Amino acid sequence: MYKTEKIGSTQMEIEGPSLEWIKNRLQREYGDMYQILNYKTTLKGGLFGFFQKEIVNANYVVEDSFNRYNSVPDPLKKMPYSGGADYSQYQRTQPYPQKTDYMPYAAREVPVKTGMADSNQNSFTAKRDEILQALGNGNVTSMLQVAQLTKQLEKLDEKIDSISQAQAASQGDENATIQKINDLLVQNEFTQNYIRKMDDKIRREFNLEDLEDFDRVQDSVIDWIGETITIAPKFVSKGKFAHVIVVVGPTGVGKTTTIARMAAKLRKVAQSKKLPAPSIKMITMDTWRVGAFEQLKHYGDAIEIDVDKAESAEDLKSLFDSYKNSMDFVLIDTSGYSPNDYENIAKMRSMLDVKGMQPDIYLAVAASTKASDLEKIIRNYESFDFRSVIVTKCDETSAYGNVISILSEKNKQVSMITDGQQVLHSLKRASPVLFLRQLIGFQVNKDKIVKKFGSENEEE
User: Fold this and answer.
1) What radius of gyration, in Å, describes the C-alpha atoms of the chain?
2) What does 16-72 look like in DSSP terms, one character per residue?
């Protein structure tokens, strides 16, 4: 089927309950001899603005002066063809089907609308007409050329269709509630893939009448966002040996301060529960960054915890062997590398492979990291088999959609967040409520989300 816009064809308009219904109707009416130029969805009917139904309005043309003929070149058959651009001398391969009268929506002539096709579409159309001219003037000398030109023609027609449909969709009348929700999700920096899934869920769960209640839809979307946030279980002691915790991640995300915050948190929680202070050692493996050891040692001195340095796997094994029976916790800071530095990331992974250590590994990512970089970081640190994610520097951004989107898409859990400038006192256990309360533009019912997801202030 050559789906081309023919010179002299009259543009028609048809309405129906869905695009699929329209295609089936036109197929019965005209067989393969029609082309849908564009379409859009509108609301129609109802009483005082209520109970409106979605109606699809499509513009199409029927091959009236340029029919499909027995002699149109076919790459699979040798067909007689005498040349020339006038196709009217040929007979159609099959007659038009007889019209039926079951169509409840009117098909009527309308003036041809301009402006729907942009310069790209015009260029595709010009290229298509050039190919058709080549076919009509007898310039094609081999069946291989015919096949190649026919394939090009089909691809150009597909591009024209996709441009027309994209333009029609962009100019169509989107439901006001869905559009407003989408705008809020974009404002919160959720990914397009995440927004599309939310959009589909709204359409499945709400009919047109229910969509009029924005507050109800908004509450459901907030709940759905919370349900995509998976919180890691609280960590527990490994038993007879020291519990080893490792923080990995790219450079600049705050791994060193996170390790210090963890140590301070462990002491604080024990104190709040009136338990003996846990014995803790901190180790830095960051041998690349200038002053990394001195920075961690400064924090260690503030909370009275010793800090050691491990420059190799052998160093780390020796330190672990000396601590495993005497310490409750061993916290390990690591070097930061670019997500693209596969070689050094692999070396760091091999250095952590100490027999009997069985560490809990956490990936630290900054809250302000854009979604595409978060996806790359998670993928390239996957070999560490990290337990969950710590979201750092939450005070440096107001939108968390990027983090929520990527963690959901990658099926990763979040365990903790860091925020604020008080280095030793700003580590919090993550919770859906904590993220939901930060949503920009949404009217979040705190009591409702706390009841559904729990408190945002649980201690580790």
Assistant:
1) 32
2) ES-HHHHHHHHHHHHTT-EEEEEEEEEEE--BTTBS-EEEEEEEEEE-SSS--BTTS
Contacts of 99 (CB under 8 A, 6+ apart): 29
Give me the residue label for tokens 């952590």.
352
**Most distant pair of Cα atoms in the chain: their distance:** 99
Question: CA angle, corner 157, sides to 151 and 162, nearest 5?
Answer: 130
pLDDT higher than 70, residue 168: no
Q: Comparing C-alpha atoms, which of 248, 262, 245 is closest to residue 303?
A: 262
Mean pLDDT score, 268-280: 91
263 Cβ contact list (under 8 Å, min separation 6): 280, 282, 299, 300, 303, 305, 329, 331
Which 3 state secondary structure label does DSSP give 200?
Answer: helix
d(CA 235, CA 415): 9
pTM (2 decimals)?
0.62
DSSP 246-273: EEE-STTS-HHHHHHHHHHHHHHHHHHT
The three-state secondary structure class of 107 is strand
Residue 232 carries which DSSP code?
Answer: P
**Whose structure tokens read 């997801």?**
453
Rounded Cα gap, residues 281 and 306, in angstroms? 6
